[in-house]
Write a sequence for this structure.
């Protein structure tokens, strides 16, 4: 496995947009003869999922007052707070068609669980769709997608979570959690530091990450790791991607609009799903699908398929018939999606997951 670190002119890159641009550049253009891992640690920022509306997920005035940035991922999932007190890792796994790792968060987390157990951490479990918990408290959230035949995956590790900033910067969906209070955040979010063996209690986040990387890469020292070093030409393209996409207001904030008709529900195994529609003479004039769900295909294809379709069960079902909704919204089938849009109750659905 290759190690790619966000180091430029000998300095670690902490800009959240540049960190995401590095991942996009490597994912889309760099094809090596082995899998890739790239760690990143950023300035205080909120990272939201591909299909989320920023204004529904964050407390923007608080973020502005405390210089907290925002960046949109190119994978699904929910919003999370990141800073330089915690480390995140991304992976590119070659030959997606020959591995069962896509959607298998237990398998994704298995190596890191083994590493953390070596550091004295006990009580780790993969729970829900994509979380890693420590004695019932969340210490990581993961996301995945398939791009150009490779599985693009990543997760964060909470070594020293800042509970107060998490609580104030994020604007949680009330279908997911009942309280905004710091005590509620502490009850849900865990910390790895307290669970480390005594000899690791005073470890820095950089030392912590180096230990993890050495174990994952199976080397005694990171100097022995197989690396790819960015060239000046690589950095030029990365800067362009950051400017055009991840540090661009339109990408991070400008993707969503207000609608006259909206449905909002949380589905077990899927996540929170929102659909906004403008209806003219009983036909869908505009539609947006958003939420913290995952999917392999671009959900905009479903939106395009429904434009101009009558707000009618059979008409919507017919328009969606050429598509497998599960490819766009993981664990959601066509029938359930049509019922959701029309707010048709389904006795078999668990809406509290």
């Amino acid at each position: 496995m290759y190690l790619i670190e966000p180091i430029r002119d000998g300095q670690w890159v902490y800009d959240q947009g540049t960190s995401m641009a590095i991942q996009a550049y490597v994912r889309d253009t760099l094809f090596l003869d082995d899998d890739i891992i790239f760690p990143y640690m950023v300035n205080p920022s909120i990272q939201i999922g591909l299909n989320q509306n920023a204004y529904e997920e964050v407390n923007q005035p608080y973020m502005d007052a405390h210089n907290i940035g925002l960046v949109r991922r190119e994978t699904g999932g929910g919003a999370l707070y990141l800073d330089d007190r915690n480390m995140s890792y991304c992976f590119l796994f070659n030959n997606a068609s020959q591995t069962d790792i896509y959607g298998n968060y237990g398998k994704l987390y298995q190596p890191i669980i083994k590493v953390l157990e070596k550091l004295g951490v006990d009580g780790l479990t993969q729970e829900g769709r994509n979380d890693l918990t420590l004695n019932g408290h969340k210490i990581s959230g993961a996301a995945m997608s398939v791009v150009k035949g490779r599985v693009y995956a990543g997760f964060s590790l909470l070594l020293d979570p800042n509970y107060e900033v998490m609580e104030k910067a994020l604007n949680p969906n009330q279908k997911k959690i009942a309280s905004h209070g710091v005590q509620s955040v502490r009850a849900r979010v865990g910390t790895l530091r307290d669970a480390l063996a005594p000899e690791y209690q005073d470890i820095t986040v950089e030392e912590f990450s180096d230990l993890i990387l050495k174990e994952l890469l199976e080397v005694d020292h990171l100097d022995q790791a197989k690396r790819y070093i960015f060239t000046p030409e690589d950095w030029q393209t990365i800067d362009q991607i950051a400017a055009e996409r991840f540090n661009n207001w339109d990408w991070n904030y400008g993707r969503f609009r207000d609608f006259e008709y909206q449905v909002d529900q949380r589905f077990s195994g899927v996540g929170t799903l929102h659909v906004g529609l403008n209806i003219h003479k009983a036909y869908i004039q505009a539609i947006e699908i958003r939420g913290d769900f995952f999917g392999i295909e671009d959900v905009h294809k479903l939106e395009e398929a429904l434009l101009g379709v009558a707000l009618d069960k059979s008409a919507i079902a017919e328009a969606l018939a050429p598509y497998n909704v599960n490819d766009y919204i993981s664990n959601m089938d066509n029938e359930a999606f049509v019922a959701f849009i029309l707010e048709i109750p389904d006795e078999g659905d668990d809406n509290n997951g």
User: Anything to note?
Assistant: Residues 167 and 181 are 7 Å apart (CA to CA). The chain is about 30% helix and 25% strand. The first strand starts at residue 2 and ends at 3. The chain has two domains: 2-252, 261-341.
